Amino acid sequence: MIIVSDTSPITNLAAICQLDLLRQLYSHLIIPQAVYNEMVGVNKVVPGAVEVQQLSWIQTIAVVNSQQVTELQGKQDNIDLGEAEAIILSLELKADLLLMD
Prior knowledge:
The protein is α/β, with parallel strands linked by helices. It has one domain (3-99). The protein has six helices and four strands; from the N terminus they run E-H-H-E-H-H-E-H-H-E. It has helices at 7-15, 20-26, 33-40, 49-54, 66-75, 81-92, and strands at 3-5, 29-32, 58-61, 97-99. A two-stranded parallel ribbon has the order 1-4. Helix 3 packs antiparallel against helix 6 and helix 5 (66-75) crosses helix 6 (81-92). The longest helix is centred in the C-terminal third of the chain and has 12 residues, at 81-92. It is globular. It starts with a strand and ends with a strand.
C-alpha cells in the first residue's frame, strides 16, 4: 500500500505523542521533499521533525514533475507547496491514500 502524507497529519499526531498510529495503520509512509523541508528546515521546533529524519518507516521522495506542482499552486490560491507536492506525488506514485488536513 502506498500512503503519501502532507505535514499536518504528522505534526498533529506527533504533538500528542501518537505518531506511531500511522505506522500501525499503514506500516510505511511517504512524504514529499517540501513536507520534509516544512518540518525540518525551519528555525522553530516542529512536532515530528526529529521523527521524519530518523524513523525508517517514513520516507522522503522528491516530486518528479515540479511543473505540475507550480500549475496546481497557480490554480488554487490556498494550497501551499507541501500540499501541492503531496497531491502531485500521490498521483505520480499512484498512491492508495493521501493524508491531508
